[in-house]
Sequence to fold (264 residues):
Amino acid sequence: MSRRYLMCRPTYFAVDYTINPWMDPSTPVDAELAIRQWTELADIYRDLGHTVELIEPLPGLPDMVFAANGATVIDGTVLGAQFKYPERAAEGPAYLEWFARAGFATHQAKFVNEGEGDLLLTERFLLAGTGFRTDPGAHGEAQELFGRPVIGLQLVDPSFYHLDTALCVLGGPAEVAYLPEAFSAGSRRVLARLFPDAITVDEPDARVFGLNAVSDGQRVVLPVQAVGLMSELERRGYRPIGVDMSELRKAGGGPKCCTLEVRV
Ligand code: ARG
Fold:
């Protein structure tokens, strides 16, 4: 089925600071290549019949391309992001303003939350990560605002600092895919209990951001380097679509990070 996505062109993309272990400002970034890879991702969505909307990138905000962090939108209600690090703080109001202008009911967050980086909606639950970015207080805030049962999940590996780097909502028969090692023992047991048919991935697939994927329940757009996950998806009846996001990965992001789902 058709989805609506908000994206932000990586016009000002750079790796100028380090707020996750993937970011090394001494590694050169090919800004032109980043734009080409991002454009290909947007084109894939359009080819699949999805709607891509755009927010104007702002100079001085190199991570603004990671639209998933900009807000959380469920049933037309928007919870604004409140970023943990000052380097990204100005993105929160920029995204919230876009939604306000587009006529959405917007809510300013009280607690630190980094949008769909840590808040992922399944059919039954709102999965909510914490440990590196999003404050656990935001979990209760999201539950109250959206009226969806929130399941808190504890992230333990700094390489997988956002929930959307460690878990992907697939929909369909498996419901989710995740890297068990990225979660605390208790959270692993919660995931096993809630999602007995989930796909569990190995670390090499997760390290190329294979879990930073965007699924419409059938077609799954994911980094082409995640070869193990691609074949497992196929085996389970999904249609994997590979995309190369190597430049954006230098900032610690993949296809899902560049994509904010707008659920009206
Ligand atoms: N450099 C960005 C940060 O560390 C990357 C954000 C990736 N986004 C995501 N949804 N995981 O904040």
Notes: Residues 31-47 form the longest helix (17 residues).
